[in-house]
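From the methods appendix. Each design record in this collection lists the discretized structure first, followed by the designed amino acid sequence. Records were kept in a plain field format so they could be parsed without special tools. The example shown here is representative of the layout used throughout.

RECORD:
C-ALPHA CELLS (337 positions):
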C-alpha cells in the first residue's frame, strides 16, 4: 500500500489508508469503552463472588475483626463501609480537639488489650511499649510532648502544643501506621483472611473482569461489524481492516490480532509503564507501512472505509466491478427528434 492508496492483484480494488489522527481517536474511544466495561463488570463479578459462602463468610469475618479491633469505624451511620478511626475522628465535628486525642489514645490501649486476647500477652506488651517509645520521642518547638516522672509517662506541662496537635502528631499517626500494620501482619486469622481476599481479587475478580471487558470491546464488535473487522471506535471513525490480499481478514487472523493486541500490548502495558503501547503507536505513525505492532505481525492495514467497500473475497470484488461497469454511449445510435 502506497501513502495514499493500495493496489493488489485486482487493480479495481483501491483504498486510502486511514488518517493517523482518526486511528488514534478510534483507539482512544475503544480504550475508554474497555475501562468503563472493566469497572462495571468488576462490580458484577464481585457481587457474584459474594454469593459463595466461603467468600461472604471471609468478608464478614474480616469486617468483624476490624470493628472489634476498634481501629475502624463506620463511615456513616448504618453504613457498611469502614474507615480508620483516626480518619473518622479527624473528619468528625462531634468531638472537641481534646476528645479526639483522648478517644484515640484510649483506642490504642483497647487495641493492645484486644491483641492480648486474640494473639498473646507478648503482643499486648509490644504495642504498649512501642506507643510509649513513640510518644516520648515526639516534640513540639523543642519541647517533648511527654516526659517520664516518677516512673510514669505524663504530658509535659512545658509543652504548649494544643490537644489537636497531640491527636494529629501522636495518636493518629500511631493508630494509622503502627496499630493497623500490627493488625495486618501479626494477627494470624486476619492475615489469612486478607490473603484469601487478595488472591480472590488479583487472581479471579480483576483478571475475569478485564478478560470479559476485552472480549466485549475488541472481539464481539468484529463479529457484529464483520466487513472490515471493526471495533466500535473504528466503526465510528469509518476505519476497517484488510489483509495482504486487500480483502476482509479471515476470522482466524482477526482472532490472532485480538490476542496480540490485547495480551501482548495492552496487558503488558499495565506492568511496563505502557511501553508496548508507545512502541505500537510509534510504528503507526512512523513505520514504512504505518502499521501498529499487531497489524505488522499479521500484515494487516487499517483503511478508510468512507465511500469504500471491503470485499470478503475476489469473487465479490469481481461481481461488484461488473455491476458498476457502464457501457460507453453509442452516439451513432442516437437519432435527432
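DESIGN:
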Amino acid at each position: 500500500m502506497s501513502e495514499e492508496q493500495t493496489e493488489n492483484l485486482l487493480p479495481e480494488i483501491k483504498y486510502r489508508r486511514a488518517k493517523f489522527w482518526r486511528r488514534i481517536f478510534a483507539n482512544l474511544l475503544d480504550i475508554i469503552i474497555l475501562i468503563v466495561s472493566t469497572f462495571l463488570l468488576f462490580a458484577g463479578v464481585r457481587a457474584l463472588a459474594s454469593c459463595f459462602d466461603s467468600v461472604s463468610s471471609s468478608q464478614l469475618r474480616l469486617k468483624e475483626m476490624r470493628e472489634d479491633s476498634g481501629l475502624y469505624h463506620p463511615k456513616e451511620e448504618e453504613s457498611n463501609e469502614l474507615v480508620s478511626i483516626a480518619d473518622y475522628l479527624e473528619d468528625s465535628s462531634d468531638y472537641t480537639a481534646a476528645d479526639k486525642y483522648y478517644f484515640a489514645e484510649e483506642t490504642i490501649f483497647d487495641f493492645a488489650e484486644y491483641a492480648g486476647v486474640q494473639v498473646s500477652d507478648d503482643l499486648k506488651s509490644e504495642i504498649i511499649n512501642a506507643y510509649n517509645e513513640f510518644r516520648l520521642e515526639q516534640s513540639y518547638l523543642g519541647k517533648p510532648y511527654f516526659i517520664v516522672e516518677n516512673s510514669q509517662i505524663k504530658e509535659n506541662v512545658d509543652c504548649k502544643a494544643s490537644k489537636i496537635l497531640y491527636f494529629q502528631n501522636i495518636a493518629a499517626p500511631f493508630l494509622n501506621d503502627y496499630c493497623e500494620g500490627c493488625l495486618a501482619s501479626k494477627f494470624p486469622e486476619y492475615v489469612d483472611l486478607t490473603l484469601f481476599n487478595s488472591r480472590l481479587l488479583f487472581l479471579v475478580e480483576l483478571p475475569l473482569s478485564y478478560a470479559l471487558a476485552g472480549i466485549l470491546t475488541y472481539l464481539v464488535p468484529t463479529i457484529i461489524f464483520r466487513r472490515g473487522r471493526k471495533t466500535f471506535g473504528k466503526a465510528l471513525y469509518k476505519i476497517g481492516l484488510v489483509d495482504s490480499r486487500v480483502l476482509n481478514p479471515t476470522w482466524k487472523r482477526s482472532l490472532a490480532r485480538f490476542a496480540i493486541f490485547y495480551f501482548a500490548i495492552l496487558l503488558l502495558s499495565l506492568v511496563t509503564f505502557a511501553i508496548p503501547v508507545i512502541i505500537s503507536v510509534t510504528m503507526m505513525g512512523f513505520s514504512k507501512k504505518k502499521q501498529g505492532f499487531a497489524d505488522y505481525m499479521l500484515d494487516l492495514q487499517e483503511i478508510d472505509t468512507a465511500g469504500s467497500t471491503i470485499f470478503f473475497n475476489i469473487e465479490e470484488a469481481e461481481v461488484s466491478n461488473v455491476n458498476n461497469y457502464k457501457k460507453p454511449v453509442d452516439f451513432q445510435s442516437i437519432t435527432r427528434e
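APPENDIX NOTE: Residues 1-11, 325-337 have pLDDT under 50 and may be disordered.
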